[in-house]
Amino acid sequence: MPPSGQSPFAINAGNQFELVLRRDGAARLREALAKALPDVLESPDALAVEDLDVLVPWKSRPSSGDVSLARRKRTSESMRRCMEGELGEPMLVLHPRFRFQVFGSERDLEPDGLLLLPAGRNEEPELLLVEIKAFVDHGHRTDLHDLAQTRLQLAVYALALEQAARVDGLSVETPGDAVVVLRRAHSMFGIAGVEEIRREVERVRRAVDRGPQLVAEVLQLVPQDGRLDDASVLGSVPVRYAPGFCLSGCAMALQCREASSASGDPAYYGSPVSELLHGAGDLVRAHALIKRELQPTTPAEAEISERLGALRMRIDAARTRCT
Ligand code: SF4
């Protein structure tokens, strides 16, 4: 089984589909993208293609350092040209490469594509990540789990892109949208659509930012003569409680659940509630915002109040009608 957990059959099907879309100067991919973004791509022919597998091909040794570096540099240069207005026409970079520093180590990531739009959807230069998936587009009946996984994958790429741009001194907003290309039923043609990935980006960012992440970082929090079998020492180490994971696999689960409950941490309820309410900090504040007893002070709080406050009012109104 490949390390990704996907079956070899699924990976093979995915690779085949991507190959077909990238054939003939990525003709089918350009066609799908032009249909999805008619306001910024007049026609498939209006989109230039820069294929890093052709321009900077891998040598006999896969992932060799010099090729990795050359691919990253080429990606950075294309992004710079787009953001600084030097790109005359929209361009699609195939297999762009980003360096991503996370959890104390560095990794290179290669999304399927990166759309560089000199005049994007807001007339400003825009970068849109592109991910190709071989599962079939069934419109509103498309597998939600597959789409959610794809958005999460794109969120990781978005943070890698943000990091790479920052290293290069480019002023690039973290992408809040990305393009997902699925397979049209009974064919090897693609259907592209713009997916919002803002929430996934924040979710991944929170996971990356929350410390401690490494055992060495945990040990730094333990006093010099402290022991991990001392409850007071253990209690001083911040936890990252996630019921779906912790309750099934950790002997500390009940203690961490109690700590999470005592502090009113939205993580107590696990995903998706914790994602929804984390912007308020704790459950008491979230509750007050939803009841509109508190004025939001941040955009995240305003979103909680707006989304869940309105829902609560509708539920209250329905309850009143029913009684
Ligand atoms: S239950 Fe275990 S894995 Fe979960 S936060 Fe506590 S110590 Fe960490």
Topology:
Elements: H1 8-36, E1 48-51, H2 52-55, H3 65-83, E2 91-94, E3 98-102, E4 105-109, E5 113-117, E6 126-136, H4 144-167, E7 177-183, E8 190-196, H5 198-209, H6 215-221, H7 231-235, H8 243-249, H9 253-262, H10 273-277, H11 283-290, H12 299-322
Parallel strand pairs: 1-2, 6-7
Antiparallel strand pairs: 2-5, 3-4, 5-6, 7-8
Helix pairs in contact: 4-5
Iron/sulfur cluster (SF4) is lined by residues 239-241, 246, 250, 252-253, 256.
Brief write-up:
The chain has 323 residues and is an alpha/beta fold. It has two domains: 8-207, no CATH class; 240-322, no CATH class. It has helices at 8-36, 52-55, 65-83, 144-167, 198-209, 215-221, 231-235, 243-249, 253-262, 273-277, 283-290, 299-322, and strands spanning 48-51, 91-94, 98-102, 105-109, 113-117, 126-136, 177-183, 190-196.
Largest sheet: 6 strands, mixed
Number of helices: 12
- Tally the beta strands: 8
Order of helices and strands: HEHHEEEEEHEEHHHHHHHH
User: Proportion of β residues?
Assistant: 5-15%
Q: What's the overall geometry?
A: globular
Radius of gyration, whole Å:
23 Å
Bound molecules: iron/sulfur cluster
- Which class of secondary structure composition applies to the elements? alpha/beta
Overview of the structural elements:
With about 325 residues, this protein is α/β, with parallel strands linked by helices. The chain has two domains: about 10-205, no CATH class; about 240-320, no CATH class. It is built from twelve helices and eight strands. The strands form two sheets. The chain has a six-stranded mixed β-sheet with strand order 1-2-5-6-7-8. A two-stranded antiparallel sheet has the order 3-4. A hairpin with a 2-residue loop joins strand 3 and strand 4 (about 105-110). Bound molecules: iron/sulfur cluster.
